[in-house]
Structures are given as C-alpha cells and as structure tokens.
Batch of 2 targets.
Target 1
Amino acid sequence: MAMYKIFYTKRFPMSFREKTSWAMALILIAAAAFYLNLVISASRALGQTAPPFIGFVIAYIVVIVIASTVIMVALALSSPREADAPADEREKIIADKAGNWSGYVMAVPALGALWHYAVNGDGNMLFHLVFLSLMLGQIAEYAFQIVLYRRGV
Amino acid sequence: MAKPPPITNRIRELREQHGAMSQSALAEAIGVTRQTVIAIELGKYSPSLESAFRIARVFGLGLEDVFGWEADPH
C-alpha cells in the first residue's frame, strides 16, 4: 500500500477516536516543540543546561487537560452517538498495541537520559530529557494509533 | 505496510443482497463502529470469532458462507 493511502479518508472515514488521536497528537507535538525551544534558548542564554521549569511543567499539564477536554467536547458534539459508544474490539486492539509500542519509544530516550546523567552528572539535563521522553511516549502512542487506524491492525 | 490477513469475506456483496444494508446498520447490528465494518470489508482487520458469528447471523448464513480462508501459495 502506498504511504499516501494512510491519509486517504474518503474511502475510509475517520472514527471519533481517530479524530481525538489526531487532535491530541497535534497538541502534544506543539507543546513538546515549545518546551524544547524554551530549554534550548534558556540554556544558550545561561551558557549551561537550564534548570527545570517546574512552572512550565504544571502549566503544561493544566493546558493539556483543558485543551484535550475542549477538543473532546467539540468532537463529541459533532458525533454524539460515536462519542457515547464504548471502544469496540478493533479500537481496543489498536489502543493496546499503540500503548505497548509507545512504551519502548519512551523507554529508549529515558535510558539515554540516565546514561547521560551517569556519565556527566547533569541533573538539569536529566530532568529535561526524562520530561521530553514522557512527551515523546505520549506523542508516539497517538501516532501509532493513527497509523493502525489507517493501515489496519 | 501490514500484510493483509488471509481471511476473505463477502460482506459487501451480502449487504447489497440484503436490501442495500448500510455499513452503519450492520455495525449497529453487531456492536462495532462503522469504521470497523469498513476495515473488515477492505481486509484491513480480521474480526473476532464472536463478531464473525454475529455478522453471519445478521445475514442468516453460516460462518463459511461469509468468510473464507485464502491459503498462502508459498
């Protein structure tokens, strides 16, 4: 199957859960890009790894919860029956596989962060890398879901 | 890309024979989403045994009248 067919939705329309996966993936990518940019620019300005942005982490969690709630409500209003229905057998398999695979995506950079800390002893970098690993794992989970919805289980 | 499962089906043909039953109607009858019915018809997803039985019962047929096994030539 050609790659473009993954995004060809006329013959294979998106379900409610696939739409939420797209929305969440885009929100998380934007948040991760913002965080990465913040850390890099602050570290350049300081001449060393910037300390943890605890305020940002709290704001990040709040914004993600609010944004995801707003988007879920908007999508649910556009297709209330689908939103009310529980996940079916295919959707459960997709969620399970994506969750399983994304665990590896999260673990690899997290282990890299631990290795970096063991070698360099940079606790600030450890914080940023672990936080980015968590974000990467979540993004990967939604990305895998989208691929499995499009490509087939 | 994922290799399509070797399970074939006649769901689209049977829907048309049953008064042009919509994918949504079949989905509701067997308790899955319309996208899952589409995925089964396109060979992107092999249904569970329970769903396969439910689909066959909707059409009043046996399992092997709806689903087939396409053996790997190799």
Target 2
Amino acid sequence: MYDNKRLGFLYVMPFVLGVLLFKLFPFAMSFALSFTQYDLIDSPTFIGLDNYRELATEDPLFRKSLGVTLWFAALAVPLRVGFALLIAHVLNFKLRGINFFRAAFYLPSILGGSIAVAVLWRFIFSKTGLVNLMLAKLGMTPIAWLADEHYSMWTIVLLFTWQFGSAMVIFLAALQNVPISLYEAARCDGANRWQQFWRITVPLITPVIFFNMIMQMVHAFQEFNGPYMITEGGPLSSTYVLALYIYDQSFRFFNLGYGAALSWVLFALVGGLSLISFWSSRYWVFYAGEKEKSR
Amino acid sequence: MSGTSSDAMEQSGRTRWVRYLVLALVAFVMLYPLLWLIGASFKSNQQIFTEVGFWPQNIDFKAYAKGWKTSTEYTFATYFLNSFLIAIPRIIVTVISCVLVAYAFARFEFWGKKFLFSVMVATMMLPLIVLRLPQYLVFRELGWLDSYLPMIVPSAFATDTFFIFMLVQFLRSIPRDMEEAAQIDGCNSLQLLWHIIVPMLKPAIISVIVFQFIWTMNDFMSPLIYLASVEKYPVSLALKMSIGATEEVEWANVIAISVVALIPSVAVFFAAQRHFIEGATSSGIKG
C-alpha cells in the first residue's frame, strides 16, 4: 500500500496546494509588485527598477533601517544562541528538578512574542520602571532606556535574548546524545572541563549550532512586535528595523510597490546570509558518519 | 538515550552546588519580570512606580475590574472570545492537514517526494514578511478582509510547515510493524491512519495543538493587518489598543489585563509541558 504512488500524492496534496496558493504565488507576486507603483486605488504601473534605485540612492531612512536590522541581528542572534548553549551545558547533568528548570527557561520563549510581554517590557524599561527603580536602590542614576538612542536597541535585544529557551531544549537533546565514553577518554588524558567543552562538546554538536544559528537569524530579521510595541522604532529611528519599515510603507502609507521592494531586500539579505552560512558550514560543521545524511 | 552523557558529568558535591546556584540564579532573573508583573497587577498605580519588590502590600482587584471593562464599548470577554474563535478552528484544520501531509512524507513513496520535502524545509526559512503584502492583496480580492478567514484558511493547507516537519520526524522514529499487521488484516490507509498512526502520534499532536494555540494567541501582525472592526479584535490587538489610546497610560489596568492575557497560554503550557517540550526537541535534530 505504501508504494501506491497516487495515494501518497493524494495525502500530500493539501501541502502542494498550500505552497502554490499561499507561498509561491504571493512570493512571485511580491517580486512583480516590487517593479511597480501601486497605492491600492489606481491599478499598478510598471516603473522598472525605480523602487530599488530609490531605496539604494535616495532613501536615508532605508539605509538607517538596514543598519539597525543588521546591528540587531548581529547582537541578538549570537547572544540568544550562546546563552542557549551555555545554559544547556550547565543543565546537562544528573539533576533533581531538571524538569522545573527546563520549563522555567522555556517559558519566556513561549510568551516572549506576545503583546502582553511587550507591554511588560515597555513598562520595566520606562523612566520610572522596574529597572530604574532597582538602579536607584543601588544608588545609580536612572537611564532613559527607551528615550535614549544609545540604549533603546538593548531593550529589544534583551527581549530577544530572554527567549533563548527553544534553542536551549534543542541543544540539550543534542548534548544528551554525545557519547559518554568520549568524556571518559578525555578525562584519562587529563583534559579539564573547559577543554572537554571546547574540544568534545562543541565540535560534536556543530550541526545543531548551525541549525540554531540559521533559524534564529531568520527570526531576528523579522522581529516586529518588540520594536513596534516597546520603542515604536524610535528614538531617532534607532530601533526602526526593516520589518517595521516594510509594515509602514505597505500598510500605513500604502506604497505597496516600495514595500514589496523593501521586503525583497530583506529576503535577499536573509537568503544571502543563509547561503554564506551553508557554504561556510563545510569548514566548521562536523557531521558524524551516515546518521545525519541518511535523510 | 537520555542521560548517557550526564553520567559522565557525575561530579563532586561542590561543582554540583555551583551548577544549582547558577541555574537558580538565571531562572530567578529570567522569571522575576513575570513575577513582578503578577504582583504589580494587585498594586495601585502609585505603588507600581515605587516598589521594587513584587509582593503587594494589599491585594486589590480594582485594576482587574477596570482593565477588563476597557475604554471601548466591549469588555475583554469579547476579545478573549474572538481569540478563541480564531485559535480553535485554526488548530483543528492545522492538525488535520499536517497529519495527512506528514503521513504521506513519512510512509508513502510518490513522485517528487524528495523535491517536495526540500521545498518544505526551505519554506521554514522563508521570511514570512515577504508574503504579507501579496497575501493581503489576495485576501482583499477574495473579500476576506475584516474576517478571520485569512488567519484560518491557509492553515488548512498545511502552511505551518514547522508542524509537518515535527510530525514527520516523530513518525519516522516509529517502527512500521503495527501498520503491516493491520494491513494484512485488511485495513485501508485511512483506517490505518485513524486507528494506528494517530494514537501513536498523540504526543506530537499535543505539541502541535499547544504550539498553534500559543502562537495564535501571540499573533499580532495578522490581526493588525486584516481586521478593521474593534468588535472583531483578538486579545493581542485589544491590548495594544489599551496602551495606545491616550498619552497617559493607566499602567495598573494595562498590567492587570496583560496578566490575564497570559493566563491561557501559561495554563496550556504547564498542562502539556512535558509532552510538548519533548515534541519541540525531537523536531530539531533527533533523526
């Protein structure tokens, strides 16, 4: 029965239709739109590469936004993945209450995307919020987290890092598959814990590090709720990420053609960085035997 | 499988305590904002801005009552109902479509399977924001704006590929003996799916339900783009409205209602915690 080709195709049909209707078609459509001027009222007019030319040469806000997005990803992704690995490493031992800790570290990654948490964040970092209350208790001067362009970025980077739980559980599973004999052998040779971590643990789980880096990068480039709710892109556009700019152009100013061009720049950015990562992975990602390749 | 390397980590009492200390400290720092939020929801507007401790001096439900009522003509009861009206149908169609597709990928041989599987993995990495605008235009053309259809119908076509991937990984780890036996007894593929596959997939399906529920509750951008009438707003949008309406935010009310907004997700998380962290984990790399 399982080699009944028609039956298999029948079951996979919803996915094929879904990809065509809701992924591939919109994808192509947004590409086409990016060469037009369109405001929802008049029908789209073809303007060639004008949108791209405009954003490359005449749009300082785009340049600012691009820089902000790259800076955000460069800070937030390594912090989240690094934290996830570190905590997974500390968590990976015989421990009473491992379930409690695992749940505690996982919870923020579940709730972190919600508007309620964004509201909380905005409040914690407000002028008289919790963080400044604590600073005052310690005798330090309060900081205008949300109003000072040097600090605003850190509030959303922190929110992103706070949600390291989902990457952590994936690391934890990988760590538990590292054969114990390797550590025993290393200990016999006199390797200390630090060396064991860097020489055994890290090399063996490079595929997982790679996976987490890529997935978190895709997330980071699309971060919207945080900047939208907490800092509203400001102050002085210091948190005006591309996702926010795309939203404004597309759904507030109804410059649909320009919005589409912007979103294709974002796509090219993510795609390009993924390709570079895949290419570079040959040099640093170690796949053990056939297991990973058997897919 | 679990705990193989943890045995290697068996160690002296001192390092053990260091680990406990580190973990407890990190957990405390991470959860303190949430704890403080709960405490603050019982405080007065003035206490919120002066107290670092999370324990309120006197329990006061006034903020809850006020926040629940909102400044609109609807209460949060409406907004919660709306959220569930989106989440429940969406979960149902997601489970059905993703189980079917995962069944095909994990068990059947068909033309183009490898290609379709790589398409699926690739779409997981596709930034959804590129699709927002054209999807909006399509739904507008269909007359679906200001309804819940744009948030529900795509899920019926297994567009949440993360779940397919998770289910496929889970199915692959299950041996086919039972299915072969049932086939000999004359089960057709649908009977097989319903009587054998689905019961075995239960933990993974629970993960799908929990994830989809929480993600739909959290979803903010879709309702922001697609919904216009306040009476149709889900919780996420209503919360945003409560903070955006005036310059002077009534923080006590907003905080109280934020706590309420988190309750469904937290409840579902703890109810299914064990199952679904494992489901999430196996989706990653255990292959």
